[in-house]
Amino acid sequence: MSRILIADDHPLVRDALRSAVLYSCQAQEIHEAGCLDDAVSTLREKGELDLVLLDLNMPGMNGLTGLLALRSQFPAIPIAVVSAHEDRKVMLEAVRCGAAGFIPKSTPRDAIAGALRQILAGEVYLPPSVEEGEAAEDDETAEIARRLSTLTAQQLRVLEMLGTGKLNKEIAYELSITETTVKAHVSAILQKLKVYSRTQAVVFANRLQLEKARFGA
User: Fold this and answer.
1) pLDDT at 119 > cutoff 80
2) Pick from 89, 63, 81, 55: which is nearest to 160 by CA?
3) At the top level of CATH, which class does the domain 2-135 belong to?
4) Which of 7, 94, 117, 129 is close enough to 99 for a disulfide, judged by CB 3.0 to 4.6 Å?
């Protein structure tokens, strides 16, 4: 019996996914969330769920940034992206950022059911057409995604703010933390991203902004 969270801001989509979940597996509990903050609150309240079905475009997500934040806070919970985006690069980057699978919303219910069973069994799901060409994907893209996936949720927020040109004191004010804590976060970010300056870190921050724009967030 599975405990599943459906996180999507469209009630009709949540209803469709609930139907697919009930069709594919015996769910003990099905919870719903309409934004990233609600998803985080539900996961903190309910504990270790078996699966999260996550929309990349709902409020608070900012594309892959929201996925990375959830992975850093709840590393043991599988997260399957269910999205209207069908770009192969987006699918691969989502998996490389820690998603347990990527299911396009256009996927027929029987195929969604099969994908959910595969993910709940501990496997990673990608549409067959994407899996066939995965080996040719750019190694640099994979490495960037891997480094970003090591950042905590707070470090991701600091990195995004670095990308907008904010000073340490401005970041400290917006996050309600001390400048010393901001400096510690920046040092950790540089170490995890394997870069040596704030300027180089901003390159990674700009990548997150590009992903945000791609998802229309």
Assistant:
1) yes
2) 63
3) alpha beta
4) 94
